[in-house]
Amino acid sequence: MPATRTTLRRSLAAAAALPLLAVALTACGYGSEAKDDTKKANVSSGGKKLSADTVKIGYFPNLTHATALVGIQEGLIAKELGGTTVKPSTFNAGPSEIEALNAGSIDIGFIGPSPAINGFAKSKGKSLRIIGGSASGGVKLVVDPKKIKTLDDLKGKKIATPQLGNTQDVAFLNWISEKGWKVDAQSGKGDVSVVRTDNKVTPDAYKTGSIDGAWVPEPTASKLVAQGAKVLLDESTLWPDKKFVITNIIVSQKFLSEHPDVVEAVLRGSVNTNAWINANPDKAKASANAALKELSGKALPPEVIDPAWKSVQFTDDPLAATLDTEAKHAVQAGLLEQTDLSGIYDLKPLNKILKAAGKPEVADAGLGVK
Fold first, then answer.
1. What is the pTM of this model?
2. How far apart are the C-alpha atoms of 291 and 327, rounded to whole Å?
3. Which of 60, 93, 237, 308 is spaced 20 to 30 Å from 101 by Cα?
4. Residues 47-87: pLDDT tens digits?
5. Short-list 336, 198, 349, CA closest to 271
């Protein structure tokens, strides 16, 4: 697939201190505050320190970030780091995580495709690299079955997405366009009313009837189903092999240059964590839920976590071709202009690890460093 070349529309960049996709883009969008989880810092029981005393890792307290949740909870990432300490921090939105990466507050982050694209484009290709995959899928269109029985019934209805221009918002706008319907991307007005609603309040909005459905990630989708909503479409069915990137692993270019051994160790931990998750799905689900309870104070009930967990696939492959397509969708929606995304990926460390483990290497869709 040819490389997509995208950047923010100049008028949007001029209109706000942070570009649209920097403000809005997050795989799960629960706000913008970061939490320093120093109390959860992990260090293995022994071993030689690598080139850095500490590696600061950012992620969301969300199921689509379970590689980080489980990898830190179970000590699988720390095990690869020897005496180098893991310092985790959680974020509730992509923009704040990108800001933390740029400021050096974190070195490595788990994050959705759209904020990664925007962070790379805004810095003119100097801030970050995508170095691995983490998760695929976990996004659904759920609706009020009393009001909407078929996909055609969405016309004239109010459907929530997490934020203007975020990953799910772009996907829904693209789906609407392919139906031949018209919606103004900025206002959300048109043949379907696209209502930008923070995921943490979407269940209440559904309960009160102010929205008729939502195109949202897990576990929000399963929370709505627990309230009586019906899954009308799983986004994975729209993609080849039913796979599309929902969470990547990014690293600051400075940290990658100065501490490649640490980056490789974290990637080995991620690869081992994904293997453990896929080999032990029930144990991994319980581990992720325990981590969520520790971070948020509340575990997800079985009727939410069970279906949500099943819809997320954990993979080392960043599924680069799907990120390329997602960027094109943003261009087609009128939210982005074209720019060069060549070099957004550096998969050499990951492929080195995969090859050593006897696993197939992964591709960068022509968007890798030369």
1. 0.84
2. 32
3. 308
4. 677 999 999 999 999 899 999 999 999 999 999 999 999 99
5. 349
